[in-house]
Write a structure and sequence with these properties.
The chain has 126 residues and is an all-alpha fold. The chain has one domain. It has 4 helices and no strands. α1 packs across α2 and α2 packs across α3. The radius of gyration is 15 Å and the shape is globular.
Length: 126
């Protein structure tokens, strides 16, 4: 379930959020099939990592929205750290960067909540 929601939310939905953000900031929008496919692969990979993290925290945090938010924040912090270590992300006081970071954080939290909701739905139906 975390892989599915990762592909949909962290992949496809985040690509659309990036395009909307570029449009609102009067930047060129680059929507290509290759970029879309790359984001789905990245989202799926992050979904796998999120699923592994969820296995680790399921005993410590009760099921529900808090566990989903924790999952989203963990993946977001890890992605920010990974981007900073790799040199692809530099934090500055530029408002474009801050808006992008806030929107991206929201997408990650949405992923966590959706994953937790999907898992609780599947377990409830069994």
């Amino acid at each position: 379930m975390s892989t599915l929601s990762g592909a949909i939310i962290l992949g496809a939905f985040s690509r659309l959020v990036m395009a909307a953000l570029a449009h609102s900031l009067n930047k060129p929008i680059n929507l290509s099939l290759r970029g879309f496919a790359e984001m789905i692969v990245i989202g799926t990979s992050l979904g796998v990592i999120g699923g592994l993290f969820l296995i680790g925290i399921r005993m410590h945090i009760q099921p529900g929205i808090y566990r989903g938010v924790t999952l989203g924040i963990f993946l977001y912090a890890g992605s920010i750290l990974f981007g900073m270590i790799g040199g692809r992300l530099t934090l500055s006081e530029n408002t474009d960067v801050l808006i992008t970071l806030v929107l991206t954080g929201g997408v990650y939290v949405l992923y966590g909540i959706a994953t937790e909701w999907l898992l609780s739905t599947v377990h409830r139906d069994r």
